[in-house]
Amino acid sequence: MDDIIYLDHAATTPVDPGVLEAMVPYFSERYGNPSSIYHLGQESRAAIDRARVAAARVLSCDVSEIVFTSGATESDNLALRGTAWAARLRPSANDAAPHIVTTAIEHHAVLHTAHALERQGFAATYIVPDSRGIIDPDAIASAVRDDTCLISVMYANNESGAIQPIQEIAAIARNRGIPVHTDAVQAAGSLPLLVDELGVDLLSLSAHKFYGPKGVGLLYVRRGALIDFQQAGGGQEQGRRGGTEDVPGIVGQGVALEQADSWREAYTEHCRGLRDRLYAGLLSAIPDATVNGPLDSSQRLPNNVNISIPGVQGETLLLSLDVLGIAASAGSACTTGNTEPSHVLRAMGLSDEACRSSLRFTVGRSNTEEQIDATIDAVVESVGRVRALTTSHAS
Ligand SMILES: Cc1ncc(COP(=O)(O)O)c(C=O)c1O
User: Fold this and answer.
1) Is 379 helix (H, G, I), strand (E, B) or coil?
2) What pLDDT digit, counting tens, does each position of 88-146 carry?
3) Residues with CB under 6 A from ligand 1
4) Where in the chain is CATH 3.90.1150.10?
5) Which run of H or of E encompasses 49?
């Protein structure tokens, strides 16, 4: 698979060699349980502490505000369920279950959690974005009710690449005394994660999206935020998330997060160049292709390309590209096998047809201009082939 052109970095990234090197000892010679009091255990404890310091430095928060999790799905669940249940169980709460404001373009880790809370009697409002995929802070303000206990809006969208006005949304929330959660999974490595500047109370990350390992993430929990922690157990994470820690994963996440933060500017510049080259090449060779998501570079993740190609099913194109050694996506990787059109593109007002003919490329650190040019050629060739087949079938 050495020759693969990997353009699906929003789905996952390879583990950086430096990250892997830092993790390896914690699989083998440093295998102690961090809860054990002897030296071997305390070595693992110290490694977790160092990773927590690293994460706190990147987020510019206190170490006590970082809770390690198994990834963003758990972090998102914890943020929503934990806040909703804390509000409901508050001694001063009345019998009515509180309300959450979120958006129609969230990852399913948030959306399906909100749906589950609705089934438990909570209320939820899902704000729809504009045609670029951007949420209007005024729409959030209008949706807030007296019983709203949480606003959850993602920092940047995994499909459209649209960057959301989190600071403005957080300012609205602060004025009303409502906590704000942001799923910052796709922003890590591209955008600053300074929680005070963003104004958020809860923030989710997943290590494998920024060249760390899979199955580990974190939730930033602002001191004083009311949260009913969901995973009882052996008192790990200061009693906030029971279960023996994934020491190698946590170590890897710490290194990966520090690297992503210190390489952010160079990474952004590198990705932006490749992204613009890919857009320019595709749009000039396929003039009826349309861009999904913001056209303004400052409102879009630097590594995201999303287009619809009329008359060509995204899935068909993906298979054709796969044969040519190119990995891309026709939507979120988490919904592969699901033939439903993307809920994100649909919320932006695209027709089912335009959703089904969409293709997402997300570039990363190791991609080159030569790979981008080869991809443009491959897409153009595949589109020509699919269109020719469709025409010959139709005639
Ligand atoms: C925006 C966003 N949130 C949450 C997740 C879930 O992350 P994980 O599967 O690592 O738990 C993803 C993964 O694609 C994502 O893109």
Assistant:
1) helix
2) 998 776 667 799 999 999 999 999 999 999 999 999 999 999 999 999 999 999 999 99
3) 71-73, 76, 107, 109, 154, 158, 183, 185-186, 206, 208, 334
4) 5-12+264-394
5) helix 39-59
Nearest of 139, 118, 142 to residue 130 by alpha carbon: 139
**Residue 334: active-site member:** yes
Q: How far is the CA of 42 from the centre of ligand 1 (A)?
A: 31
Query: Does 265 have pLDDT greater than 70?
Result: yes
CATH no. for 17-262 = 3.40.640.10
Any idea which fold 5-12+264-394 has? Aspartate Aminotransferase, domain 1 (3.90.1150)
Least reliable range by pLDDT among 81-85, 87-91, 167-171: 87-91
Q: How far is CA 39 from CA 33, 36, 147, 252, in A?
A: 10, 8, 50, 21
Is the pLDDT at 334 greater than 60? The verdict is no
Distance, in Å, from the CA atom of 282 to the CA atom of 376, rounded to the nearest integer, reads 6
Matching residue, tokens 């820690």: 245
Parts of the chain belonging to CATH 3.40.640.10: 17-262
Cα–Cα nearest to 268, from 188, 358, 168:
188
pLDDT digits (tens, 9 = 90+) for 290-314: 999 999 999 999 999 999 999 999 9
3-state secondary structure of 267: helix
Which residues, in sequence order, are CB contacts of 164 under 8 Å at separation 6+? 134, 135, 153, 154, 155, 156, 157, 182
